[in-house]
Each structure stands twice: as structure tokens, then as C-alpha cells.
Amino acid sequence: MNTNTLKKFAREARVKLLDLVGRKLEYVLSHDTAELRGKQEQVNKLKQEIARHGKGQVIERVAYTWFNRLVAFRFMDANGYTVPMIVTPAPGSTIPELLQEAKAGHIDDALTFDRKRLNDLLDSRTSVADAQTEAYKILLVASCNAWHTTMPFMFERIADYTELLLPDDLLSEWRP
What distance in Å separates the CA atoms of residue 16 and residue 51, rounded to the nearest whole number? Predict the structure, then answer.
């Protein structure tokens, strides 16, 4: 089996995730928004981790964590373990099936999140730069949390600074 393509993808995805997580970290540390004020406990924990380990180590750890989660979901999607697929588009689509199903009003009741916020994003009743990406991030985090019970070693519950540093560019072609 030739693994060169997979190795190349992993290297490129790692570099891209490091860059995206690093940019998100700088944004979180340098902006004062209503959303970030609502997550002050997570921001404080992030600052403590940076003081303890340094920015580079925090960025590396968070990028590694998200890479593992995204690749695990891609594997699970490809093998039919997730319905709807979490990171993979349905045939003929360009957005993950999970988001496509949510836009059609089909959301698994097992997913726990702020449904009003998701509906506001999907119905364009909120002013954010990219409502579709924000909606997908909510669904992705909820999926990670839902899979925690089955696979806690891969999907630890997310309610910390790793959620804050989830990259914004999740719907572009680089994803696994």
C-alpha cells in the first residue's frame, strides 16, 4: 500500500491547522467581543495554559487534538459509522452532510447544543461574518461531545479553550 499521499496530506493538514489555530489564538487574545466575554472562563483557562506551557505548545496541542478528531470523523464517515456523515459531504454536495441535514431541519435529538442559536444562524437571523461555518462549528462540537460516551479516548467533552480555538476555515477543501 502506497502511503505517500496520506503522509503528504497529514503534513499539509498539520501545517494548515497550526496556522489556523495560531490565528484563532491571536484573535481570542486580542479581541473583546460579546461572544468571548460570555466565555471568559475558557479564555482565562487558555491564558493559564499559555503561561504554563507557552503559545507554541498550546497551538501544537490544540491543532493535534482537532486533527485527530477530524480524521477520526472522516474515517467513521467513510466506513458508515456516522449518519449523517460529520465531515464528509453527501454525494453531489460540497458541505458536510451534517450541516446539509441541519439546514433541511434534520438534527439528531442526541446532539446537545443551543438550538435557538443554531436556528438563528441557519435562518440568517444573526449578524456574523460566516453563519454557515458558525452553525457547522456548533454541530461539530456537539458531535464530538455526543461521541464522547462511546469513544472518550478520542472525543473528550469539549467545553474548554480547545473549542475557542476551533479554526474558522472548516468548510474549505483542506479538511480530511
Answer: 24
The pTM score is 0.89
Task: Kindly provide the residue ranges of all beta strands, DSSP E only, lying in 23-146, ordered along the sequence.
Answer: none
Centre a 10 Å sphere on the Cβ of residue 138 and count the other Cβ atoms it contains: 20
> What does the pLDDT look like over 65-77, one tens digit per residue?
999 999 999 999 9
Nearest to 95 by CA among 146, 130, 125: 130
SS3 35: helix
CB atoms within 10 A of CB 107: 19
Q: How far apart are CA 82 and CA 151, in angstroms?
A: 13
Query: Where does residue 73 fall: left (phi above 0), alpha (psi -120 to 50 degrees), or beta otherwise?
Result: alpha
3-state SS assignment for residue 163: helix
Whether the CB-CB separation of 45 and 98 falls below 8 Å is answered with no
pLDDT tens digits, 27-65: 999 999 888 999 999 999 999 999 999 999 999 999 999
d(CA 86, CA 27): 26
Contacts of residue 78, Cβ cutoff 8 Å, sequence gap at least 6: 88
Grid cell at residue 157? 467533552
Q: Are 88 and 77 spatial neighbours (Cβ–Cβ below 8 Å)? A: yes
